[in-house]
Amino acid sequence: MHTGEQYHEFMLASPRDRSVRARFQQLALGLLPAGASVLDFGAGTGIDAKTYAANGHPTFVFEPSEAMRDCLLRHCRDEIERKTVVAVASPLACKVQAVTANFAVFNHFADHAALFEQLSYVVRHGGFVLASLLNPYCLADARYRWWRANLVNLVRRGHYAIASESRIHRFAPRIVARAAAPHFRLERRMPSGLALASQLYMFLLFRRV
């Protein structure tokens, strides 16, 4: 079984991940004007892209992983044939109202400044970037040694990386907001307040200025 297929089946079978995805999709669809185009950045196997297209939004998909992309091409075969989903080799190949990045795509970047500068050429003024990032404040992670070891880094620098093959980075929202400027401003962080401590993912909404 392909790695992409394994990921696809896992995400569809996981109640927790389906719930997170549903909240993210609902938020994105509520923000998108009718018929507005969207770039699914780090589109994975195309689960979100298929939903956006089904709701009348022309959807561009960018996915650098070959295994994920192969699965996406199968999963979204009908939409690709109808050109409601279009695969692009670079984000710069499209101009859209919004960019979405679900399930910690942005956590694979050590520094978001160059990324947001690139996305500023993609997102129309007044449009938005909606990103789902791993929440560095999630207290459920406090049971892990790496979380406790990096608590000082989080407080002092607002950023740390976990020593692993993928080297996933964790960011305080203020650090991502600083990297997004001057092209984007952080408009909303979800959840907010004490609810942040109980969620594995946080959603950050950036508005193109």
Automatic annotation (TrEMBL):
<dbReference type="Pfam" id="PF13489">
    <property type="entry name" value="Methyltransf_23"/>
</dbReference>
<protein>
    <submittedName>
        <fullName>Class I SAM-dependent methyltransferase</fullName>
        <ecNumber>2.1.1.222</ecNumber>
        <ecNumber>2.1.1.64</ecNumber>
    </submittedName>
</protein>
<dbReference type="GO" id="GO:0102208">
    <property type="term" value="F:2-polyprenyl-6-hydroxyphenol methylase activity"/>
</dbReference>
<dbReference type="GO" id="GO:0032259">
    <property type="term" value="P:methylation"/>
</dbReference>
<keyword id="KW-0808">Transferase</keyword>
<dbReference type="InterPro" id="IPR029063">
    <property type="entry name" value="SAM-dependent_MTases_sf"/>
</dbReference>
<dbReference type="GO" id="GO:0061542">
    <property type="term" value="F:3-demethylubiquinol 3-O-methyltransferase activity"/>
</dbReference>
<keyword id="KW-0489">Methyltransferase</keyword>
